[in-house]
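Reminder to self: tokens first, then the designed residues, so the page reads top to bottom the way the pipeline ran.
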């Protein structure tokens, strides 16, 4: 008897193995995305904190709001830098940047 191709049982087995692998991998990938967004938000807050220090050095006082850093002839930040990749907005309180 000549065999040309896979039997139904072989196909079901292969698809089952692929599905099990996907079920093991997908949760890890989605949790990594969440961690990356959190870390990128932390990095963005640090960028804003460094711009706060630069603003204080050049002007002699701390900015009272994020608008102080994004406005003016030569802004310290762009409008895109005010929002984290995770969607949180960065605000300034007591000379420190926080994501909320």
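Designed residues (100 positions):
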């Amino acid at each position: 008897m000549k065999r040309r191709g896979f039997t139904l049982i072989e196909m079901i087995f292969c698809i089952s193995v692929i599905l099990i692998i996907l079920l093991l991998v997908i949760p890890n990938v989605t949790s990594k995305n969440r961690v990356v967004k959190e870390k990128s938000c932390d990095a963005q807050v640090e960028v804003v904190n460094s711009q706060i220090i630069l603003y204080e050095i050049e002007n002699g006082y701390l900015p009272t709001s994020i608008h102080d850093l994004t406005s003016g002839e030569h802004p310290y930040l762009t409008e895109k830098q005010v929002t984290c990749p995770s969607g949180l907005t960065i605000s300034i309180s007591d000379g420190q940047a926080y994501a909320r």
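DSSP finds two helices and two strands in the chain.
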